Amino acid sequence: MDPTSESQPTNNEDTHSVLITHSGKSHTFTLPSTSTLSDLRLQIQSTFSISAEYQKLTAPKLGLLKDDNLPITSLPSPPKKILLIGSSNAAIQDIKLANSPAASTLRRFGGTGPIKPAKPVHRTDFTKSANESKYTFGPIRVLQHLPNPQRSETYLKKLAADPGIKAVMIKHRFSVGMLSEMDPAEHTTHESRTLGLNKNGGEEILLRLRTDRYDGYRDYKTVRKTLCHELAHNVHSEHDKHFWELYRVILKGVEEADWRHGGRTVDGGGDGGRVLWEGEERERELVEAADGGGWTGGSFVLGGGGGSGGSSSGGVEDRRSMAARAAEERAKKMKDTL
């Protein structure tokens, strides 16, 4: 079936159309108004050859679509698009065949002539491959009007492929419709800077990659930490205790996967030493000294007014004082643990 064509119902009853995009291809499905999301999944399977259980659908304002009984009339109509993420049945079948006993035998004894010495065979973990395809990011979007858009694209791809990020996304079953570069000019005021933004619980995550003057890029681990913050907003929209608990679990999981750079051992540095995570060590300083109450909604805002409303003329000095106190507290804790 032509993926750019339009599916039509077989009768004259009332209909509803939805526009599905997948891997750069679009298809408009027109179904009876009485249809549900489950009926749409069957049409998608017929057109894109992706089984219903491997389909991840993300709609504007609705986020990830999970309820198969959802009426199709609840979905946005064209030109609004619904993003489809998933591996085709053919790709999944190839993975299954590659792991089959018959394929292993052919690899070992195939061909004519003397039997070659057996070589170690790398076996694909089908469950891991399926999860990586299911719990991942959708398309990457960068700002083409700014200098070096290729560097921004490389930066976002590195974040999406980061072993720690991939591990926590699979563990917590996170799917993000789009990973985008944030324009600093649109999210900067005299009082604050927005470092990250999560739209509609994972429909899109935007990250501030560039410095305010566009002449450089921010530290990778700092941006990765912001991404951890925004991933926690896939579950919790407010910055309550449940959000912070999940955020710290995500951050620790990412840093554990990056053990060479994410943490260091204290109490002698041996196997029995306690691991001190950089995220744990710096979180208090970041929130108390820099944030000033600027964590709002689904975004990570650096700066901003305090809880009593707005910023004062002494705001910079206050933050410096708090930073100094936080540094003193960390130094004292480090001394106590040594």
UniProtKB/TrEMBL annotation:
Ranges of compositional bias, category Gly residues: 295-313
PROSITE patterns assigned: WLM
GO molecular function: proteasome binding
Signal sequence residues: none
Biased composition (Basic and acidic residues): 316-338
UniProt region (Disordered), positions on chain: 295-338
Domain named WLM: residues: 128-332
InterPro entries: Ubiquitin-like_domsf, WLM_dom
Top-level taxon in the UniProt lineage: Eukaryota
Protein name: WLM domain-containing protein
Species of provenance: Arthrobotrys conoides
